[in-house]
Amino acid sequence: MLTEPCNTSAVVSFYGAVSQPLRCVWSFYSTSAAVEPSSPSVKTAVPGPKSNALKRDLDSIQNTELVRFFVDYARSAGNYIMDVDGNVMLDLMTQIASIPVGYNHPRILKALMDPANLSTFANRPALGMHPPAQFGSDLSNTLVTVAPPGIDQVMTMACGACSVENALKAAFMAYRRRERGGNPPSQEEIQTSLKNSPPGCPKLSALSFNNAFHGRTMGALALTHTKWVHKLDFPSPNWPIASFPYLKYPLEDYVNENKAEEAKCLAEVTHLHLLCLTAKTLALRLVNISR
């Protein structure tokens, strides 16, 4: 647990009266469980004057082109986000779908307050090499309980793009290990891998689909085909891209048209698959509908 005394005057200004000096960690978490508003409330233009002033300040040290408004996270709650100008808005973006349980969820705050978790938060373990003692039981009691049937191995990742990057690595590794028939890599493979050359860096590919979004790191970006602004000026491997069925709705009114669309796309995938098999380059297929 943190032991430095907290400057309670700063806490009071945001969260109301505090009757005695508190430890920093408790003063933040014990007072930040905001109550979810009953409806939106807009008091200024969005962005408001405070957001605009903060954006001007931030613009002096980084690109702020995508900044919409600045947020008062301490006062945001549940499905509602509050900006620094006091505007309350129903949030359908949820930080790019990263907080599906809403703002300042009591159980999230409780987990952050738990002294048993503080050493993990403070020390940022390299989990692959030096996990904390409870890491195995934590995984067994969380991710393993919701894993699909037949999946008994789990790995934590920092974000969605990281997950895609590691999925690519795992697929390529499995493909090459099968090709080696259980034998270790050759010295030629080891040496050429450091020079970005085959056979160490094989000419394999992943099949993705038009309008897919998998992330914006370099590997995931090679599988992403939504907005040009995500991809312009970045080198990318020449991996195959197939059409994904664009169905008409309601489905019951367009049965024949949708069957034809699906058949066309499947034929395209089959064609690309055969081309890659001929060249021995296709290692995996990825499907993700654009958000």
TrEMBL record:
- Cofactor dependency: pyridoxal 5'-phosphate
What is one Gene Ontology biological process annotated in the Swiss-Prot or TrEMBL record?
Answer: gamma-aminobutyric acid catabolic process
Keywords attached to this entry? Aminotransferase, Pyridoxal phosphate, Transferase
Q: Which Pfam families match?
A: Aminotran_3 (PF00202)
Which species expresses this protein natively? Answer: Elysia crispata (lettuce slug)
**Molecular-function GO terms, alphabetical:** pyridoxal phosphate binding; transaminase activity
Q: Does the keyword Transferase apply?
A: yes
Q: Which family does the entry's similarity section mention?
A: Belongs to the class-III pyridoxal-phosphate-dependent aminotransferase family.
Among PANTHER family, the record links this protein to:
4-AMINOBUTYRATE AMINOTRANSFERASE, MITOCHONDRIAL, AMINOTRANSFERASE
Residue segments, region Disordered: 179-198
What name goes with this protein?
A: 4-aminobutyrate aminotransferase
